[in-house]
Design a protein that fits this description.
Layout lengths: L6 H9 L6 E4 L5 H10 L3 H7 L1 E4 L3 E7 L7 H10 L2 H11 L5 E2 L7 E15 L3 E2 L4 E10 L12 E4 L6 E5 L6 E5 L6 E3 L10 E10 L14 E2 L6 H35 L1
Antiparallel strand pairs: 1-10, 2-3, 3-5, 4-12, 5-11, 5-12, 5-13, 6-7, 7-10, 7-12, 8-9, 8-11
Helix pairs in contact: 1-5, 2-4
Protein backbone atom coordinates (compact mmCIF):
# COMPACT_ATOMS: atom_id res chain seq x y z
CA UNK A 1 0.00 0.00 0.00
CA UNK A 2 3.04 2.28 0.43
CA UNK A 3 5.21 2.91 -2.62
CA UNK A 4 8.84 1.68 -2.48
CA UNK A 5 11.16 4.04 -0.59
CA UNK A 6 14.92 4.39 -1.09
CA UNK A 7 16.08 4.04 2.52
CA UNK A 8 19.65 5.13 1.94
CA UNK A 9 18.79 8.22 -0.12
CA UNK A 10 16.20 9.31 2.41
CA UNK A 11 18.57 8.73 5.33
CA UNK A 12 21.21 10.90 3.63
CA UNK A 13 18.61 13.62 3.00
CA UNK A 14 17.56 13.66 6.65
CA UNK A 15 21.19 14.10 7.79
CA UNK A 16 21.43 17.52 6.15
CA UNK A 17 17.83 18.66 6.69
CA UNK A 18 17.26 22.07 8.25
CA UNK A 19 15.98 23.41 10.62
CA UNK A 20 15.55 19.92 12.17
CA UNK A 21 15.47 16.35 10.81
CA UNK A 22 12.59 15.79 8.39
CA UNK A 23 11.68 14.40 4.99
CA UNK A 24 8.85 14.82 2.50
CA UNK A 25 7.67 12.26 -0.07
CA UNK A 26 5.22 12.84 -2.90
CA UNK A 27 3.18 9.93 -4.29
CA UNK A 28 3.62 8.26 -0.92
CA UNK A 29 0.84 5.68 -1.20
CA UNK A 30 0.10 3.42 -4.14
CA UNK A 31 -2.37 5.27 -6.40
CA UNK A 32 -5.37 3.00 -5.98
CA UNK A 33 -5.02 2.92 -2.20
CA UNK A 34 -4.56 6.70 -2.03
CA UNK A 35 -7.77 7.12 -4.03
CA UNK A 36 -9.62 4.78 -1.69
CA UNK A 37 -8.49 6.71 1.38
CA UNK A 38 -9.40 10.01 -0.25
CA UNK A 39 -12.89 8.78 -1.12
CA UNK A 40 -13.38 7.47 2.43
CA UNK A 41 -12.78 10.79 4.18
CA UNK A 42 -15.99 11.93 5.86
CA UNK A 43 -17.34 15.41 5.27
CA UNK A 44 -16.49 18.26 7.63
CA UNK A 45 -20.01 18.08 9.03
CA UNK A 46 -19.64 14.34 9.68
CA UNK A 47 -16.27 14.60 11.44
CA UNK A 48 -17.63 17.49 13.51
CA UNK A 49 -20.17 15.03 14.92
CA UNK A 50 -17.59 12.27 15.45
CA UNK A 51 -14.57 14.14 16.81
CA UNK A 52 -13.27 17.12 18.71
CA UNK A 53 -13.53 20.61 17.22
CA UNK A 54 -10.96 23.29 18.08
CA UNK A 55 -12.12 26.88 18.48
CA UNK A 56 -9.25 28.45 20.43
CA UNK A 57 -6.95 31.31 19.42
CA UNK A 58 -4.11 28.96 18.51
CA UNK A 59 -6.11 26.25 16.75
CA UNK A 60 -9.36 27.13 15.04
CA UNK A 61 -12.02 25.54 12.83
CA UNK A 62 -10.24 22.21 12.91
CA UNK A 63 -11.66 18.80 13.80
CA UNK A 64 -9.81 15.63 14.72
CA UNK A 65 -11.06 12.07 15.13
CA UNK A 66 -8.65 9.88 17.10
CA UNK A 67 -10.87 6.84 17.75
CA UNK A 68 -9.80 4.33 15.10
CA UNK A 69 -13.02 2.33 15.59
CA UNK A 70 -14.80 5.23 13.86
CA UNK A 71 -12.54 5.21 10.79
CA UNK A 72 -13.91 4.02 7.43
CA UNK A 73 -12.13 0.84 6.30
CA UNK A 74 -9.56 2.46 3.95
CA UNK A 75 -8.54 5.02 6.58
CA UNK A 76 -8.25 2.27 9.18
CA UNK A 77 -6.05 0.36 6.73
CA UNK A 78 -3.80 3.44 6.44
CA UNK A 79 -3.59 3.63 10.23
CA UNK A 80 -2.55 -0.04 10.28
CA UNK A 81 0.07 0.43 7.55
CA UNK A 82 1.71 3.38 9.32
CA UNK A 83 1.94 1.29 12.50
CA UNK A 84 3.24 -1.86 10.79
CA UNK A 85 6.64 -3.20 11.97
CA UNK A 86 8.08 -2.95 8.45
CA UNK A 87 7.28 0.74 8.16
CA UNK A 88 8.41 1.46 11.71
CA UNK A 89 11.72 -0.22 10.92
CA UNK A 90 12.17 1.90 7.78
CA UNK A 91 11.38 5.19 9.53
CA UNK A 92 13.54 4.22 12.50
CA UNK A 93 16.50 3.63 10.18
CA UNK A 94 15.95 6.78 8.10
CA UNK A 95 15.56 9.04 11.16
CA UNK A 96 18.15 7.17 13.24
CA UNK A 97 15.79 6.63 16.17
CA UNK A 98 15.88 3.01 17.42
CA UNK A 99 12.88 1.09 18.72
CA UNK A 100 10.08 3.35 17.56
CA UNK A 101 6.60 2.57 18.88
CA UNK A 102 3.32 3.42 17.14
CA UNK A 103 0.44 4.76 19.20
CA UNK A 104 -2.72 2.63 18.92
CA UNK A 105 -4.65 5.37 20.73
CA UNK A 106 -3.55 8.02 18.20
CA UNK A 107 -3.32 10.72 20.89
CA UNK A 108 -3.68 13.96 18.95
CA UNK A 109 -3.61 12.10 15.64
CA UNK A 110 -6.05 10.37 13.32
CA UNK A 111 -8.32 12.15 10.86
CA UNK A 112 -7.69 15.91 10.73
CA UNK A 113 -9.91 18.31 8.79
CA UNK A 114 -9.65 22.10 8.72
CA UNK A 115 -12.33 24.27 7.18
CA UNK A 116 -12.18 27.78 5.70
CA UNK A 117 -10.56 30.36 8.00
CA UNK A 118 -9.02 27.60 10.08
CA UNK A 119 -5.41 27.58 11.21
CA UNK A 120 -2.88 26.02 13.58
CA UNK A 121 -0.34 28.38 15.10
CA UNK A 122 3.38 27.61 15.27
CA UNK A 123 4.21 25.27 18.15
CA UNK A 124 6.21 22.38 19.50
CA UNK A 125 4.22 19.33 20.53
CA UNK A 126 3.83 17.73 23.93
CA UNK A 127 6.91 15.61 24.61
CA UNK A 128 5.80 12.84 26.97
CA UNK A 129 2.81 10.67 27.90
CA UNK A 130 3.31 10.03 31.64
CA UNK A 131 0.68 7.34 32.10
CA UNK A 132 2.29 5.22 29.38
CA UNK A 133 5.87 6.43 29.91
CA UNK A 134 6.32 7.25 26.23
CA UNK A 135 8.58 9.93 24.76
CA UNK A 136 7.22 11.53 21.60
CA UNK A 137 9.79 11.35 18.80
CA UNK A 138 8.24 11.77 15.34
CA UNK A 139 5.22 13.22 13.52
CA UNK A 140 3.91 11.76 10.26
CA UNK A 141 1.33 13.63 8.17
CA UNK A 142 -0.29 12.36 4.97
CA UNK A 143 -2.41 14.74 2.89
CA UNK A 144 -5.51 14.00 0.81
CA UNK A 145 -6.37 17.27 -0.96
CA UNK A 146 -6.92 17.07 -4.70
CA UNK A 147 -6.57 20.20 -6.84
CA UNK A 148 -5.47 22.24 -3.82
CA UNK A 149 -4.58 25.76 -4.96
CA UNK A 150 -1.66 27.77 -3.57
CA UNK A 151 -3.94 30.73 -2.83
CA UNK A 152 -5.84 28.51 -0.40
CA UNK A 153 -2.89 28.42 2.02
CA UNK A 154 -2.83 25.58 4.55
CA UNK A 155 0.89 24.85 4.13
CA UNK A 156 2.69 22.87 6.82
CA UNK A 157 5.48 25.21 7.93
CA UNK A 158 8.81 24.23 9.51
CA UNK A 159 10.37 27.07 11.53
CA UNK A 160 13.70 27.70 13.21
CA UNK A 161 13.98 27.40 16.99
CA UNK A 162 13.40 31.13 17.52
CA UNK A 163 10.37 31.26 15.18
CA UNK A 164 12.03 33.96 13.11
CA UNK A 165 12.57 32.09 9.83
CA UNK A 166 10.25 29.64 8.07
CA UNK A 167 12.63 27.23 6.34
CA UNK A 168 10.00 25.15 4.52
CA UNK A 169 6.31 25.43 3.66
CA UNK A 170 4.79 22.33 2.05
CA UNK A 171 1.45 22.54 0.31
CA UNK A 172 -0.99 19.86 1.61
CA UNK A 173 -1.34 18.25 -1.81
CA UNK A 174 -2.85 14.85 -2.49
CA UNK A 175 -0.71 11.85 -1.47
CA UNK A 176 2.13 13.92 0.01
CA UNK A 177 3.75 12.68 3.23
CA UNK A 178 5.81 14.78 5.65
CA UNK A 179 7.72 13.28 8.57
CA UNK A 180 9.72 15.27 11.12
CA UNK A 181 11.41 14.84 14.47
CA UNK A 182 9.60 16.00 17.60
CA UNK A 183 11.86 18.00 19.89
CA UNK A 184 11.93 21.24 21.83
CA UNK A 185 13.09 23.10 18.69
CA UNK A 186 10.82 21.48 16.10
CA UNK A 187 8.51 24.47 15.72
CA UNK A 188 5.87 23.93 13.05
CA UNK A 189 2.41 25.17 12.20
CA UNK A 190 -0.28 25.34 9.53
CA UNK A 191 -0.75 28.55 7.58
CA UNK A 192 -4.22 30.09 7.49
CA UNK A 193 -6.62 28.00 5.40
CA UNK A 194 -8.32 30.16 2.78
CA UNK A 195 -10.16 27.52 0.77
CA UNK A 196 -13.69 28.39 -0.39
CA UNK A 197 -16.80 27.31 1.49
CA UNK A 198 -17.47 23.64 0.81
CA UNK A 199 -13.77 22.76 0.59
CA UNK A 200 -11.79 21.25 3.46
CA UNK A 201 -8.10 20.60 4.16
CA UNK A 202 -7.79 16.86 4.89
CA UNK A 203 -4.92 14.91 6.41
CA UNK A 204 -4.12 11.85 8.46
CA UNK A 205 -1.67 12.21 11.35
CA UNK A 206 0.17 9.71 13.52
CA UNK A 207 2.95 10.01 16.07
CA UNK A 208 5.77 7.69 17.05
CA UNK A 209 7.32 7.21 20.47
CA UNK A 210 10.14 5.47 22.32
CA UNK A 211 10.38 4.14 25.84
CA UNK A 212 13.88 5.59 26.01
CA UNK A 213 14.32 9.32 26.48
CA UNK A 214 15.82 11.19 23.50
CA UNK A 215 19.40 12.49 23.88
CA UNK A 216 18.19 16.09 23.92
CA UNK A 217 15.59 15.56 26.69
CA UNK A 218 16.16 17.71 29.78
CA UNK A 219 13.64 15.91 31.99
CA UNK A 220 11.09 18.69 31.55
CA UNK A 221 7.62 17.38 30.68
CA UNK A 222 5.51 19.89 28.79
CA UNK A 223 2.30 20.13 26.80
CA UNK A 224 2.01 21.92 23.46
CA UNK A 225 3.92 25.23 23.43
CA UNK A 226 2.71 27.90 20.99
CA UNK A 227 4.67 30.87 19.67
CA UNK A 228 3.50 33.74 17.50
CA UNK A 229 4.91 34.22 14.01
CA UNK A 230 7.01 37.38 13.49
CA UNK A 231 4.07 39.25 11.94
CA UNK A 232 1.57 38.23 14.64
CA UNK A 233 2.26 41.02 17.15
CA UNK A 234 -1.27 41.31 18.59
CA UNK A 235 -1.64 37.56 18.90
CA UNK A 236 1.76 37.14 20.54
CA UNK A 237 1.49 40.04 22.97
CA UNK A 238 -2.21 39.98 23.85
CA UNK A 239 -4.44 37.17 22.50
CA UNK A 240 -2.17 34.22 23.31
CA UNK A 241 -1.25 35.38 26.87
CA UNK A 242 -4.92 36.07 27.66
CA UNK A 243 -5.97 32.62 26.48
CA UNK A 244 -3.12 30.97 28.38
CA UNK A 245 -4.16 32.77 31.56
CA UNK A 246 -7.77 31.66 31.09
CA UNK A 247 -6.65 28.09 30.52
CA UNK A 248 -4.52 28.18 33.68
CA UNK A 249 -7.52 29.41 35.68
CA UNK A 250 -9.67 26.62 34.27
CA UNK A 251 -7.03 24.02 35.12
CA UNK A 252 -6.71 25.44 38.63
CA UNK A 253 -10.47 25.39 39.21
CA UNK A 254 -10.62 21.85 37.90
CA UNK A 255 -7.98 20.86 40.44
CA UNK A 256 -9.88 22.57 43.25
CA UNK A 257 -13.10 20.72 42.33
CA UNK A 258 -11.27 17.39 42.28
CA UNK A 259 -9.79 18.14 45.71
CA UNK A 260 -13.23 19.01 47.10
CA UNK A 261 -14.68 15.80 45.69
CA UNK A 262 -11.86 13.86 47.31
CA UNK A 263 -12.48 15.46 50.71
CA UNK A 264 -16.22 14.91 50.48
CA UNK A 265 -15.66 11.33 49.47
CA UNK A 266 -13.47 10.70 52.48
CA UNK A 267 -15.98 12.32 54.82
CA UNK A 268 -18.97 10.64 53.26
Amino acid sequence: MINPIDREALRAQVRIAKPFPFFAIDNFLQPEFAEDVHAAFPSFEEVSQLGHKFTAVNEKNKVQVTDSSLFPAPIHALHTQLAAPEFLDLVSYVMDIPRLIADPKLAGGGIHETGPRGHLDVHVDFNYIPERQLHRRLNILVYFNKDWQSKWGGEIELWDKDVKICHHAFMPIFNRCVVFETSDISFHGVAAVRCPEGSVRKSFAAYYYTKEAPPHWTGDVHSTIFKARPDEYFKGKIAMPVEQAARSLQDGWRGVKQSIKGVLGKNG
